[in-house]
Amino acid sequence: MRGNRARPVLRGAGRSNAPGLPGELVGDYKNNGQEWMPQGKPERVQVHDFPDPKVGKAIPYGIYDVAANTGWVSVGQDHDTSAFAVATVRRWWSTVGKAAYPQADRLLICADGGGSNGYRVRAWKTELAALATETGLAITVCHLPPGTSKWNQIEHRLFSHISMNWRGRPLTSHEVVVDLIGATTTRTGLLVHAELDPGIYETKVRIPDEQMAALPLDKHDFHGEWNYTLRPEPLP
C-alpha cells in the first residue's frame, strides 16, 4: 500500500476460527488457559457451562488492516449474520478507514469461505452491494479456498493474540470481552479497537434469484465464485 491513493486491504474480515472465539459464553464459566492470581485466591467459576438465556453469547467479528497493523472487532450479542458482518465493515470504514484512506475508491476484503461472509451466502453479497452504494467504493472480495482459512493473516496477526490475551480469564460480561479484546497488543505494534454491537439481526433472510441477478456484481475470470467485485451503483 502506497500513500492514500492505495486501496485499503482488510486481510481477513470475519469470525475467528481459533479455539475459543467463534461465539463465547458470557458468564462466570471456565476459560481454558492459566492466569496468575494471588496464592490461595483463585477465581471461582461454575462447574457446568450451560448458556444463560438472559446473557447469551459474545460474537466477535473482526477486521485486520494489513498496512496499518490494526484490528477492529465488533462484539455482537444477537446472531452472526451477514448483516452483522457488513455492519462491522461499515463501522470500520466510517470511523477509521475513510479518514486513513481519504482518496481510496476501492476496498479489498480477503475472507474465508464460510460463515456469515461465506462465498455462497447471498445475503453477504447483497449487504456488501448496499455498502458499496453508500460509500462509493468498489468492493472486491477474495475468498480463501475451502480448507485454507488458517492461511488468512487475520488468524495469525489478530485473533491468535486475542486468544492468548484472554486465556484463563472468565468472560463474565460483554464489557469484559470488549475490554480484553481492546487491550490486545503485540511487540510488533498491533493495536485493536473493540466495541459492543447492540444490534438485532434477523436470521434466515432469503434473497430471491431476481434480486441476486440484479446486483452490480462482476465475477473475476479466475474462480469467479471466490473472487468478485461489487460496483458502487444504485440498487434496483
Structure keywords:
globular, nine-stranded mixed β-sheet, alpha/beta, 236 residues, single chain, disordered N terminus
Descriptive notes:
The two termini are 34 Å apart. Strands 1, 2, 3, 4, 5, 6, 7, 8 and 9 form a 9-stranded mixed sheet that branches. The protein has helices spanning 82-100, 122-135, 153-166, 174-182, 209-213, and strands at residues 9-14, 24-25, 57-65, 70-76, 106-111, 138-143, 191-197, 217-219, 227-230. Residues 1-6 and 16-21 have low confidence and may be disordered. Helix 2 (122-135) links the parallel strand 5 and strand 6. It contains 5 helices and 9 strands, in the order ββββαβαβααβαββ. It has one domain. Helix 1 packs parallel to helix 2 (122-135). The protein is of the alpha/beta class and 236 residues long.
Task: Give me a quick take on this structure.
With 236 residues, the chain is α/β, with parallel strands linked by helices.
* Main structural class: alpha/beta
What is the mean pLDDT?
Answer: 82
* Integer-rounded radius of gyration: 19 Å
Poorly predicted parts: 1-6, 16-21
The helix fraction, in percent, is 25-40%
**Anisotropy-based shape:** globular
Strand segment tally = 9
Largest sheet: 9 strands, mixed
H-E order:
EEEEHEHEHHEHEE
N-end to C-end Cα span: 34 Å
Q: How many domains in all?
A: 1
- Percentage of residues in DSSP E strands: 15-25%
Helix and strand layout, with pairings?
Blueprint: E1 9-14, E2 24-25, E3 57-65, E4 70-76, H1 82-100, E5 106-111, H2 122-135, E6 138-143, H3 153-166, H4 174-182, E7 191-197, H5 209-213, E8 217-219, E9 227-230
Parallel strand pairs: 1-5, 4-7, 5-6
Antiparallel strand pairs: 1-3, 2-3, 3-4, 6-9, 8-9
